[in-house]
Amino acid sequence: MVGGQRGGRPARQWGVVVLGLACLWPASAFAVPVDQLRRAEQLEREGLWSEALEVYEQLLLEDRRSPELRERCRTCLRRVHLIRRHRDARFQRDVLGLPLPQALAVYTEVLSKLQANYVDRTLVSPQRLFHQGLEEFALALTDETFRREHLKGIDAAIVQVFRQRLREDWGRRPVADTNMARDLVLDVALAARRALQLKPTVTVIEFACGACQGLDEYTAYLTPGQLQAEYESDNGDLVGIGVEVQVKDRKLIVTQIAPDSPAAVAGVRKQDQILRIDQRRVDAASSEVAIDQLRGEAGTVVELEVVSPGQAPRVVRLVRQAVHLPTVAEARLLENDVGYVRLLGFQKSTPHELDDALLHLRSQGMRVLILDLRGNPGGSFQAAVQVASRFLADAVIVSTQGQVRAYNRTYEVHQGMNALDFPMVVLVDRGTASAAEVVAGALKDNNRATLIGETTFGKGSIQCVLPLTSVPSGIRLTLAQFFSPSGQGYGGQGVSPHIVVAATSMSGMDDEALTVALQEAARLMAMRP
To answer: Which residue of the set 88, 459, 461, 473 is catalytic?
Structure first.
């Protein structure tokens, strides 16, 4: 099995668009007005799927258990994935350019990998996976991007008749095994060629994508570029220009800039709007493909037209390069020998980054630590286990359950006096998710730290990346569920703090929670002999 196990979305993907991706990366911890639901619905009607998704995600933070909001997130997510892959030149060339027999081999391999590895065996029967693919294909036939790329000149009424035929002719078919699913997909592909002049490989690959996308909001087919990005982000080394961008009010806005990156050196600033990428205008409807326009081979040049608030637009030429993304954003000594460390996410380098930060703080006289996990979306599950183990002597950290035997296990640490023993306070909020919840839950259940802030997001599953042998693509799939040391599932529940302090700003990084944390740190120090 290739690819790190992830307790959440990779820490931060700089040089790419942050599309929200349906709760893979929780939005900021801030109360969203109820009228935002109507705004999201309007964005859906306008086909602005990524913006609608961002709004639904924030609403979901207010009501984690809402099945309606989760379903709307998943619907928008499928649209975003669909648009991105059909605007991806490499996907068009390397995947949709396959001959039909090889495309069918891709479909068969996708089904086999899902059936062998997905967390819930009952959800990956051949019949279910086939019908999820049928649903994805029917959805694609209604999508403007798909129709522009693959159905030029085909009358909309003809497409609608064929969609109806999908439900009537294939929607009721029983599917006994993978071979039968493969044969039915071939039947649909040949029928689509006759009726719509659609290349059969396109149909088959849509069925493969649908088998993945229909399972949950974290499992997805990965295009060649997405597969590469997954591997790079796990190591914290991405090729790009070093910016994080988001769609805000239908504009592509720079929200973070990596230190010493091409963008930082060129003077790109936070809150800059990107107007053009290589002479191509960026608008809300096409923002999904900005991830691929900003990324590229190291040494290649990308030209951006950007504008800072209140200033005239300017053009910058940037040379893409490997950008290392540290996850320790801050490590400093506050008042009264209180150390403060903020973790942005979890990747392979995180445990060593944390060791270096703590060594530095202890050399300065740190006697208590505030570990800030607010807004931390997770990342590498293994890195989270290693981080938690730094602070625990003899304890259970987390347990996992999945279909694969290797992921039915309990993670424990037994190191006695070698564990770091200074008092700890952990800051959490609704943006603390997944692998970050592993750390927060382990420290809470083992009475190792005081948690302050808000109940965490509540994502209790592990994803892994599986490459496909039949094509240069892969699958990100949900491999296992994880549980706290006390046996509590995290999914939909999260980790509740000892002291509740609600966020009062869009960033969640206000001073109130930190002030309370400093008071708690002083109390913990006073209790030490």
So the answer is: 459
- Give, in degrees to the nearest 5, the angle at Cα 348 between 344 and 349: 70
- Report if residue 225 sits inside a domain: no
Quote the CA–CA distance of 292 and 279 in Å, as a whole number: 15
Give yes or no: residues 241 and 196 share one domain.
no
Q: How far is Cα 254 from Cα 377, in angstroms, rounded to an integer?
A: 19
Write the CATH number for 363.
Answer: 3.90.226.10
Distance CA 366, CA 368 (A): 6
Give the per-residue pLDDT at 443.
98
Of 275, 307, 324, which closes a domain? Answer: 324
Q: Identify the active-site residue in 28, 434, 473, 484.
A: 434
Inter-CA distances, 303 with 237, 241, 260, 321, Å: 22, 11, 18, 14
Helix (H/G/I), strand (E/B), else coil: 72: helix
Residue with tokens 């959800």: 123
98 contact partners, CB below 8 Å, separation of at least 6: 106, 201, 205, 471
pLDDT the model gives residue 187:
98
CA distances from 27 to 179, 219, 242, 308, 351 (A): 41, 19, 21, 24, 25
Annotated active-site residue 216? The verdict is no
**Is 7 a member of any domain?**
no
Among residues 314, 301, 302, 343, which one has the least CA distance to residue 427? 343
Classify the C-alpha dihedral 445-374-461-15 as positive or negative.
negative
Nearest to 146 by CA among 79, 221, 220: 79
Task: Write the single-letter amino acid at 389.
Answer: S
Q: Domain ends where: 324, 351, 381?
A: 324
**Do 341 and 436 belong to one domain?**
yes
* Segments of the chain scoring below 70 in pLDDT: 1-34, 233-237, 283-289, 291-292, 504-510
According to the model, what pLDDT value does residue 67 have?
Answer: 84
pTM: 0.84
Task: Write down the catalytic residue from 272, 445, 473, 484.
Answer: 445
Q: Kindly state whether residues 347 and 296 are assigned to the same domain.
A: no
- Report the number of distinct structural domains present in the chain: 3
pLDDT at 517: 96
Are 54 and 185 contained in the same domain? yes
Angle 31-36-38 from CA coordinates, rounded to 5°: 155
User: Which residues are within 8 A (CB) of 477 and not within 5 positions of it... i.e. 6 or more apart?
Assistant: 113, 114, 117, 118, 212, 215, 218, 219, 463, 464, 466
Query: Smallest Cα–Cα separation from 429: which of 349, 373, 490?
Result: 373
Is-catalytic flag, 459?
A: yes
Secondary structure percentages of the chain, helix, strand, coil, to 5: 45, 20, 35
Rounded CA gap, 348 and 190, in Å? 46
